[in-house]
Specification:
By secondary structure, the chain is mainly α. The chain contains eight helices and no strands. Helix 1 runs antiparallel to helix 2 and helix 2 runs antiparallel to helix 3.
Length: 253
């Protein structure tokens, strides 16, 4: 069954908590840097997607009460964005890194509690489950187009925010090509446990339902990844890869 808005947000919040724990548990500076980049990528997309999708829905369905609530949410988002802006460029070996991360998480959890206990119950009480599922899908789709870094000085209200997103997102996504990310990236597969999509918590039972990809492969990897396959399989893989790249490029314009 498709996720409702509160379920989709809850899954995202849980994912952010897991990334925070990855940063805390990182065994070395490079690993901590990679998980910091992954955390920044996820939180920046999450925050902007909220502001572009269900904040307008609260204003539409709840009138002045909704406006007052999302203004409070935007103030909480601003505190998170300002902390993330500093964190995303700070070396993890900086003495201020860990205290800043803790402050960011405190701000984030305050906001999550407000959404969980105030926003979602009131909104989902007055909309249908189908409408909630539609908002959840819109929330997930919008993350494909949002910036992947924090921009606290950018506008945070329609329609100025939409324009700012269009300008910042391509630059962020291009710069991400040159940043280090964890090799297991956005999926986890604990031994003996189900593999779940972090966005919607859908079970991924088959080995190739989702695959983590290293966007900066080594020369050895390029040499060996298709070795042993027939020319037909190699050409089919290449064709599908090019088709997906073309689709992704048009979606990110």
């Amino acid at each position: 069954m498709p996720a409702t808005l509160s379920e989709a947000l809850g899954a995202d919040h849980a994912f952010l908590d897991r990334l925070y724990e990855k940063i805390r548990a990182a065994p070395d500076l490079q690993s901590k840097l990679e998980w910091r980049n992954q955390f920044t990528w996820a939180l920046a997309r999450h925050a902007i997607s909220e502001e572009l999708t269900w904040y307008p829905a609260m204003e539409k369905h709840m009138g002045q009460e909704g406006i007052d609530m999302i203004n409070h949410d935007r103030e909480q988002h601003q505190a998170v964005k300002e902390d993330l802006y500093r964190l995303q460029s700070m070396s993890p070996d900086n003495d201020q890194f860990d205290p800043l991360l803790e402050r960011l998480m405190n701000h984030l959890h305050d906001h999550i509690e407000h959404e969980k206990n105030e926003d979602m119950p009131k909104l989902e009480k007055i909309i249908s489950r189908e409408e909630s599922q539609k908002l959840a899908r819109s929330f997930e789709r919008t993350k494909m187009f949002t910036p992947t870094r924090s921009h606290p000085s950018a506008p945070n209200k329609p329609y100025f925010e939409n324009f700012a997103v269009m300008l910042a997102a391509p630059i962020d996504k291009f710069a991400d090509l040159f940043r280090s990310f964890p090799e297991d990236q956005r999926l986890s597969n604990p031994v003996g446990a189900q593999r779940l999509c972090p966005a919607c918590q859908t079970n991924l039972p088959n080995p190739d339902d989702a695959v983590s990809t290293q966007l900066n492969p080594t020369e050895d990897y390029k040499t060996s990844v298709l070795s042993g396959f027939s020319p037909t399989t190699i050409m089919e893989c290449a064709g599908r890869g090019l088709a997906f790249w073309s689709y992704q490029s048009t979606q990110e314009m």
